[in-house]
Amino acid sequence: MVLKIPVWIVKTISLSFVIWILLSTVLPQMIMKRSSIQIQTNQFKKASYPYSSITSPTPLPIQNSTVYFIIGHPDDEVMFFSPSLLEISKPKNNNKVKLICFSSGDSVDESIGRIRSQELFHSAKILGISKEDVTVLDFKDGMNETWDSNDIKSALGDIIGLSHSGPVALVTFDENGVSNHPNHISLYHGTLNFFRTYYKSKKQDISSVPGNSLASTNKLYVLKSLNFWEKYSFTFLTNLELFVDQLSKLIFSNLLVNVNISFFSQNLNPSIKFYSDLNMLSVSYAAMSYGHFSQMVWFRYGWLILSRYLTFNQLNEILS
Hints:
Elements (H helix, E strand, L loop, with lengths): L6 H29 L1 H5 L12 E3 L9 E6 L4 H4 L2 H8 L6 E6 L8 H18 L6 E3 L12 H11 L8 E6 L3 H4 L1 H19 L2 H5 L6 H4 L1 E5 L4 H4 L4 H16 L19 E5 L2 H14 L6 H9 L5 E7 L2
Parallel strand pairs: 2-3, 2-5, 3-4, 5-6
Antiparallel strand pairs: 1-7, 6-8, 7-8
């Protein structure tokens, strides 16, 4: 028997999606074309076309950096981090983006782990990340697996260490791990352990080196976990936030106002909010459905349709 979805639900979701396209894509692009001298004159200063972005604050605080997205499984980079990953990767921000995946996704069997590792490389390519910038480790995947914080710190030390001459930004899950997944939660504690050991505890030693400002420029961000209703709110909450943001700009003569609307818990630490547009969402869909084909069971399609993580990320900075 075919599951029948009430017509009003389909209409509501469709209307919300159309409104989201207008607020996230059509309106920002129209504003950019009317305000960009480069587009109006067809004379461009860089090799990349001006691209509209919706972030708060603006300009993006992560620029001119090497950015490591630290994930637990192949497909985490799309299912949870795609809005921030795609925005941070835009040429105008001049970042170098790398992926560190701590498991091959082998909870079912070792053979599927080999497949999922290759799928991660395919997905990364669609997202604009080369194979050389993707690292897959062999931590055991599973809902009953808790990874040791010191083992994670050691692995990150071997890969990242202190060898970078410029700023480094680390991005991973927060203490709730999106859905209380023990692997994700382990990455929060392990990455925090690494950050405190390699950067915070050595701040004075690093800063004493002439011309070295790594201690003050390296940052750690964690993805805010959304509760059930916010996680599956599709574009409804995003539409409300984008509408208020556009209205604020209009009232205050295009002065950017920090969007900070939420019916849920707030974070006191500095944070960055990322909003996808239709172009970014299309890339996310391609990376997930084509890149991670083995994972496209029936409920994944529901995730692609309803999950807010595909159109919104909030990265909270960890200060201590």
